[in-house]
Amino acid sequence: MTTPLQARPIPDIVTAIPGPKARAHVEFDHAWTSPSLPRAYPIVPVRGLGCAIEDIDGNVFLDFTAGIAVNSTGHSHPDVVAAIQRQAAELQHFSASDFYLPIYAQAAAELARIAPMTGPTKVFIGNSGAEAVEAGLKLARYHTRRQNVIAFLGAFHGRTMGAVSLTASKAKYHARFGPVLPGVYHVPFGNEGLDEIEQRIFKRLMPADEFAAVIVEPIQGEGGYIVPEDDFLPRLRELCDRHGILLIADEVQSGAGRTGKMWAIQHWDVEPDILLAAKGIGSGMPVGAMIARSELMTWGPGSHGSTYGGNPVALAALLATIRLLENGLIANAGIRGREIQEGLRPLVERFPNLVRDVRGKGLMIGIQFDSADTADAVQMQAFERGLLVLEAGEDVVRMSPPLVVSQAEAATAVRIFTDSVAHVAAHRRADLEEVEAEREAGLITEGFGAAG
Ligand SMILES: Cc1ncc(COP(=O)(O)O)c(C=O)c1O
Prior knowledge:
Strand content: 15-25%
Largest sheet: 7 strands, mixed
Number of domains: 2
Helix content: 25-40%
Radius of gyration: 22 Å
CATH superfamily of the largest domain: Type I PLP-dependent aspartate aminotransferase-like (Major domain)
Shape: globular
Oligomer: single chain
CATH topology of the largest domain: Aspartate Aminotransferase, domain 2
Low-confidence stretches: none
Distance between the termini: 36 Å
Structural class: alpha/beta
Mean pLDDT: 96
Bound molecules: pyridoxal-5'-phosphate
């Protein structure tokens, strides 16, 4: 009989990592799944509870990835499980695009209530982050009757054709898919980019009144958990206002309470015109939302829709998630985030040749290393010690734990991560060889790192 997760310490590593069943499963997986999936390392999860993940070999890990910043309320939070079960027994699907599904309007009203805009808003609900991005892009073009869009280098907005055209974190996302959407202009993230918009784009490439929107992640996610200068978003807002350009905040990764506020953009008191949410807002159920100021929703019936978008079971999870976020989890994200960052910051002084920066807000924390190789090696050492973290950008390891993370779990993560960095500092060559061996064995995706 398997011991329930509640009764096990976190972490609890009982086999070599990866274990024999994990290795066998990776082989099975490779036989059947699309080789386009970038696998960071061979964790094969079968069960989760709170911040604990049990793998196929019975090892228990402390999960500081949360399924790429998705399991905001922790794995299988009882309130979310109950909401899903209740809804699944009542009504599993009835397309909200063609009919009047009560929970769809209810979820839209809730999202409008928590939106970081002071005026009225309306909501379109889809199934994923990329779908939210597509909806925002389409609405911006539709409403403004302008075609062009500005996005930022390092941004990740998804992989569907429109979204991937806005994405500029890795060239590989565009390879052999072109031509991508025309009319997308990328500039550096931060104040440097604002100068480029005014001096290069508007002056020499395309006039400002040809732009529908600027899309921005208030804190860049996959690009490396990059927090911009404090005046960046207010200045960007002012630039958009000056030229009648819509400001789209992509909060797919930074939203849903992760940074210690419901939306990251609220750290700078800036209101977007359109806000995109997904990932953490559904606790792992597939849901994405595009929230726009009501006056922008000028499109008519048939302009946009989705068969599954706003699936009732996903929306039951979303409503339960918002309740949990507001009843303590956002506050916890702020407190635990500060503790973790304070715990990690000494790494910069202790390992000045390896650790370049510890940064972030709340539970969106990035640790920057001297190189991608070091980040790889630290990620792997942490994995072997029972801590799941995930690379971001070129040389950053990100921590995005569930917002239910306790003080003890935060302390454990800091300890294991510190041990992992210390090990890489002392045995760098051996640790890099180990990563290389895993890559050769097909357990890690060649030369890519994490995506999303
Ligand atoms: C900021 C941001 N936008 C959009 C997306 C795309 O979301 P999805 O993978 O659900 O399509 C992601 C995914 O990582 C993201 O981080």
